[in-house]
Structure formats: structure tokens, C-alpha cells
Please model this.
Amino acid sequence: MENIKELHSLLQQPKNIVILSHRNPDGDAIGSSLGLYWFLKEYHHHIQVIFPSDYPTFVAWMPDANKIMICDTEKEKSFEKILSADIIFCLDFNALDRIDPMEDVMKKTTAKIVMIDHHMFPENFSEFTLSKTDRSSTCELIYEFIDLLHETEKINQKIADCLYAGMITDTGSFKYNVFPSTMRVAGALLEAGANNDFIQEEIFNSLGEKELRLLGHCLYNRMEIHEELETGIIYLTKEDFETFDIQRGDTEGIVNYILKLKNVRVAAFIKEQPTIIKLSMRSKGDFSVQEIATKYFKGGGHKNASGGYFYGNIENCIDRFKRSVKNQLALEK
Model:
């Protein structure tokens, strides 16, 4: 990060600080936001974390998660906080359309803007930027940010728990998108007090009966395997959402089950929602789902983990995804 000394100087006196992350926040979004929140509290700043939409229940255990402001339900207060901020941290996103409906008000702010993110192709909207794609997660970059400030001794158990949890969720317990730096940071967080057993239990072993039955339905009734494409697809219809009363976070991680199949390199989880169809894509090895997300589904992400969306019916969406994989495989030859 350039001009880190200038930012460090700004943080020495209490400021009004807002921390933002993207719509439909995942474990990395909330972990990085709350990890930074607890770190900045060491400087006695006035801090508000704001998300465009609510977060999943499997991360609700994080300290002060209940104090996060949700723009969808507190729009005016969210806008007021942004406009009165001295510094705004933008975490786990690098394009302002990821924080709709706060995009327009962000263009009016006079605050200093800090972007910390690990996705490709960042937009140029921040004065201070820490953007690296060769990092597992934004949580890993928050640790790196604290290290750049020479303040790692301030990392307590609350900070360590939040950052470690985000790293776990974005790597699937260190199964993918892992770099040497990832394991070094994870070790440092454990040394700082992160409780691995507790965090693993809260994230991966806290399903309700509904979620487990939904997983069974996905694997038995909604999974397609296309051997010629080395591809697996799980889809959910609008009717499935009603039948299982699916809420935010209930489908987290389901896409990863497809990649457990030895001969599957590409996986997609396709969800038909009232006005839009959303896709979560994963891959093994050198196959880039990021290119598929960008070219065919107005999305993006990482080489092995990306997302996108589609307008139309779910059958056409599935067909488009299969054709996109076929085209991508042809480019490999």
C-alpha cells in the first residue's frame, strides 16, 4: 500500500470511520469488517460497519455482529453515517456497484477512502489501496494491513477470531485459494488466540435440520453431472425456495460438494430467485470460472471461485452455463 505512513498518521487521532462490505456478505466480508472494527477500536475511533444486505446466521457469533447496520432496513441512517465519515474502509469489494444502494452516496462523500480487497480488476475510487489477488481472502489482507502499520501486537482474540473465520470460509478450511502467506497468517492468528475448534464448530457444524434436508434435496434431486464437460450443476427453483423456506446463508458451501467428485473439474450452483438467477461457480486446477463469470454472466471473482447472474428462465441459464464450459474447454485445446 502506497502512502501507508499518511494513513497511519490519520488513524492516530479519533475519527468517524465507516466500514463497508458488499451485498450478500459472506464470511470473509463480515470477518474482515469486524476484525478491522475491533482493531480500530484500539485507537478509540467512532466506528460503524454497514452492509447493503443482511449477513448469514452462521457468522452471527462474531463479537458485535449485532451492531452492524443493514442499509436495506436503515437506509437513511446508513447514508448519514457515510456522509459524516472522515474515513471509509471498503472491504472485500473493488467496484462501487457491489454496495448498491450506497453507490451514489459514496460518490458524494468527502471522506478519505481506503480499499482493501483481493479480487481482480479494481476500480479507481480510493485514495489508499491494498489490492492483491494472490491472497486467500480480504481477512488475510487485513492482517497484512495491520502488519504494515507495525501494530500486530494489538491483535487480540476478538480480532484473531474474526480474521481466522473469514480465511476459513474463503478457503473452505484451507482446501483452495491457499498461498504460502495464507498459512503464515493463519499461524499468526492462532498464536494471537484464534480458537480454531470453536470457529470450525460454529461455521461448519451448526446446521439446523432444515439445512441438512435441503442439502439432501440438492444432492439427490437437483444435481446434474455432465461427464463430457467434466462438470456438475446443482440448481434450485423458486418453488424449492418456498418449500424449504430458504433464507440467507442456508445454501452456503453447497457448490463445493460437487467438486468432491473425482472426475468433475467445474461446478455451478444456480439459484432461481424472484427477479434474477444467481450462479456460484467453482473449479479445480487451471480451469478459470472467473472467465466464464465475466464473459457470460456479468460477474467475476477468482480463477477457481466466481459468481454471476442471469435474467431469464432457469433452463436457459443452465444451458448457457454448459455452453460456456464447452467453449472454455475448447480454448484449452
Summary: The longest strand covers residues 266-272. The mean pLDDT is 95. The radius of gyration is 20 Å.
